[in-house]
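Ticket #4471: structure output looks truncated?

Reporter: J.K.
Steps to reproduce: submitted the chain below (209 residues) through the standard prediction queue, then opened the result file.
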Amino acid sequence: ARQVVATPSIVSPSSPSAIIQFISSERLRSTPLVEVVTTGSAGFAQDGHVPPSLSWNFRYRLPEGAPAGRGILRIIGTDLAGNTGRDEGGSLVVDSQPPRTEFQIGEPRFGSAPLFVRADTPITFSSQDDISVSTLTVVVSNAAVRVFRSTPDASSLIQTLSLHDVPDGPSTLSYFAEDHVGNIEPARTLPLTIDSIGPAARLVPSRNL
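Returned output as attached by the reporter:
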């Protein structure tokens, strides 16, 4: 087989199908077998052509529970003389897992439950994915929404923010990431209290003076 291409090149449970196109080096006597082989699993693609044919289009649909990873496109065909050929030159990425996001809180900060920070305390979010991270969304107290975007094909997205525009008092940050094929991380929350105003002191005269 030549010019083996899968479109799109990544499939996921939310975007589970792809078209596998290739050109056979000679006419085939019957429909070739097209497999997408991942670790411990293989899914088969279906064809709409009537042989003999040189140019082939197969539709692949991701099987339920298919493991994540890069799948090999295995093509097995038989020519008009009965010779069988095999090609494993193409690939298709299976991305079935959402990104994972962790956070790190800088200084100044105090305590843990409750956690106190200042408005200028840096909070760094790090999203990682097996294939690619698309966006990181941070929601502040169900109101202010901040969406950060990665560069194409980046497997990580790191973003540091501060809370200068958030008033003092208790607040909650909700955060989650999404990859390029629609796998969305379950949202998690970070409760904290913003305290950027210093204590006030006043002089009280003593009656004994």
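Triage note (M.O.): checked the attachment and the full token line is present. The CA atoms of residues 176 and 186 lie 6 Å apart.
Status: closed, working as intended.
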